[in-house]
Design a protein that fits this description.
single chain, 64 residues, alpha+beta, four-stranded antiparallel beta sheet, 2 helices, globular
Length: 64
């Protein structure tokens, strides 16, 4: 539920710990507690979530 709250808050007001990923990765990363949400922007208020990983897993392998 906390991840859904973070995503909803970001879509509504662009508030959140979000960073654009550096090449070779593409898209964005959002921190939400112990989880990382990887996504791409599609339209103004639409994102495509590519993966949700625990922070321990997120930086061990490429999410793309």
């Amino acid at each position: 539920m906390q991840i859904l709250h973070c995503v909803d808050r970001y879509l509504a007001s662009r508030i959140g710990d979000v960073k654009k990923l550096k090449p070779p990765r593409i898209g964005y990363r959002m921190r939400c507690s112990d989880y990382r949400v990887f996504f791409d922007h599609k339209e103004v208020n639409t994102i495509e979530i590519t993966s949700v990983l625990n922070r321990r897993e997120a930086y061990r392998r490429s999410p793309t």
